[in-house]
Q: What sequence folds into this?
């Protein structure tokens, strides 16, 4: 990855600098070379100074200070779901572009408000659905489009992570994290499956609180209907050992995509810990693919869209589509 010839890195404010994902975005920006974190903000003020120092950025005690920094052209939002709308709309009001981690917002209505604000202001809005950018996912798309599976009729996907939640964590609370692992993890599969197989037109769900003391659900199942007629299911758990897989069942073959989450959250290492296997009437064979750095590519594209124009691959429309799958299932 590299910056567009003759341009400086995009100056950004990182919101959520003390969390797990914000620093990962900053590291990816350094790998890309297209993004530079100039100021960092977090609601955890006690840890902000240290986090900003690690990032080589100026600490911003308030959201207004972060958005008002003279070198900031855009924001990276890696904060809890329920503040995405507040922060994204504040950025749009300041004339700043934004890359928002999935889910775009905590409700479809709020996500649509964000999309409309950025469209009306002529600003770039990207949504962090980086899993479709992995080399294994890109190769799976090639196989589906080439007809290697025949007609895909069924899809299965799971993302589970053991999560030791406490009341101090925002994911503990049902009103802040409805759907538990499906809104946080399964929503990635909703986007990736739509990328692979086309739009999801209908979903339903079953969510449960089975094995934790948290208010939020710790397990969920979402059934899917694709525009092309295929059916699917996304499942997830906050209490099971780390699991990540997608399986596509076609009339001519079955494609299995398995990732080893022991490397997570190092997204740049995930392809090296993943396998693709194609099963046909002639037997099973491994499928090779080129590893990619999805976060760096995502930020490189974000900067390019701002500098040169054009929409990001996963913008407001894609973010809303994935969120709608989970929200409809919750209903």
A:
């Amino acid at each position: 990855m590299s910056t567009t010839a003759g341009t400086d890195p995009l100056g950004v404010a990182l919101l959520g600098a003390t969390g797990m994902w914000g620093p990962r975005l900053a590291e990816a920006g350094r790998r890309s070379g297209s993004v530079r974190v100039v100021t960092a903000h977090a609601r955890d003020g006690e840890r902000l100074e240290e986090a900003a120092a690690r990032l080589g950025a100026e600490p911003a005690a308030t959201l207004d200070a972060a958005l008002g920094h003279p070198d900031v052209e855009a924001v990276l939002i890696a904060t809890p779901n329920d503040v995405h709308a507040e922060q994204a709309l504040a950025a749009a009001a300041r004339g700043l572009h934004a890359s928002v981690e999935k889910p775009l917002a905590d409700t479809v209505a709020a996500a649509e408000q964000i999309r409309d604000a950025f469209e009306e202001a002529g600003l770039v809005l990207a949504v962090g659905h980086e899993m479709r950018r992995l080399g294994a996912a890109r190769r799976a798309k090639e196989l589906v489009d080439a007809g290697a599976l025949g007609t895909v009729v069924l899809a299965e996907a799971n993302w589970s992570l053991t999560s030791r939640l406490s009341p101090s964590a925002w994911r503990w609370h049902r009103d802040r994290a409805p759907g538990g692992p499906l809104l946080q993890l399964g929503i990635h599969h909703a986007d990736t499956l739509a990328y692979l197989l086309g739009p999801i037109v209908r979903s339903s769900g079953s969510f449960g609180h089975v094995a934790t003391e948290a208010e939020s659900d710790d397990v969920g199942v979402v059934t899917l209907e694709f525009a092309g007629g295929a059916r699917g299911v996304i499942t997830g758990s906050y209490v099971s050992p780390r699991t990540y897989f997608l399986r596509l069942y076609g009339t001519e073959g079955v494609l299995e995509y398995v990732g080893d989450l022991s490397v997570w959250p190092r997204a740049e290492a995930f392809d090296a810990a993943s396998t693709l296997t194609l099963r046909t009437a002639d037997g099973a064979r491994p499928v090779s693919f080129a590893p990619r750095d999805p976060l760096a590519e995502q930020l490189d594209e974000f900067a390019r869209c701002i500098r040169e124009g054009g929409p990001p691959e996963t913008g407001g429309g894609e973010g809303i589509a994935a969120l709608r799958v989970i929200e409809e299932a919750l209903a």
